[in-house]
Amino acid sequence: MINTAEIGNAIKAYCDATGQTNVDLAKKLEVNKSTVGRWINGKAREIKPVHWVALKALINSYFTCNIDRNKSLEEIIIEDNCLSSSAKLRIIDIIKNDKSEHKSGKVKQG
User: Fold this and answer.
1) pTM for this prediction
2) Contacts of range 93-102, beta carbons closer than 8 Å, 24 or more positions apart
3) For 9-36, what is each residue's pLDDT tens digit?
4) Which of 1, 53, 86, 92 is deepest in the core (most CB within 10 A)?
5) How many domains does the chain have?
């Protein structure tokens, strides 16, 4: 079972650390801002696998604490059997865009 309080804390820490808002994260993941709010507050009934993996990957990529240090995030995502090929490519694209925004300084500082 997924611990929604831990997910909410991790999302909040990620947004705080990157200067992103719920709206920014919602746009990045192509969900409604209220969905991100429910994730943060632990009130979501479920998190779709594509969003769960994308959230874990974004958070892990920012804080550089991969689950398996011998594998890249892309390898971890590609090996996930719960996701379609198109979902995997979308998640990898989200991560790459997020990393390039951080390197270029385009992420809002709040």
Assistant:
1) 0.59
2) 94/28, 94/29, 94/54, 94/57, 94/58, 95/54, 95/57, 95/58, 95/61, 97/28, 98/28, 98/58, 98/61, 98/62, 99/61, 102/18, 102/62
3) 888 888 888 888 999 889 888 889 999 9
4) 53
5) 1
